[in-house]
Design a protein that fits this description.
With 86 residues, the chain is α+β, with helices and mostly antiparallel strands. It has a single domain, classed as GMP Synthetase, Chain A, domain 3 (2-Layer Sandwich), CATH 3.30.300. The protein contains one helix and four strands, in the order αββββ. It has a four-stranded mixed β-sheet. The longest helix has 20 residues. The N and C termini lie far apart (40 Å).
């Protein structure tokens, strides 16, 4: 899939699922961006779900577990901590 097509598809998924994802515990934001593997960004466009802290799925209520894909688009959970204003 071409980068433009991947970006367009991920943007549609973001629009469709942002409100639902923001209702989940620990979720701070949702964006289209690059996936991370081992702390390093890859060239894979995905839906990035930003959380204050990563929590193992078994410690979350079932409704708060973030899926690994949505409509065929990879979902990457990235820990950002709690944003603070300066």
């Amino acid at each position: 899939m071409a980068q433009d097509e991947s970006m367009a598809r991920a943007t549609l998924v973001q629009t469709k699922y942002t409100d639902e994802l923001l209702r989940k515990e620990h979720v701070m934001g949702v964006a289209v961006g690059l996936a991370k593997e081992g702390g390093v960004y890859t060239s894979d466009i995905c839906l990035v779900v930003m959380v204050d802290q990563k929590v193992p799925p078994e410690q979350l209520a079932p409704e708060d577990v973030i899926p690994t894909t949505l409509d065929g688009v990879r979902v990457d959970v990235q820990e950002i901590g709690i944003p603070t204003a300066f």
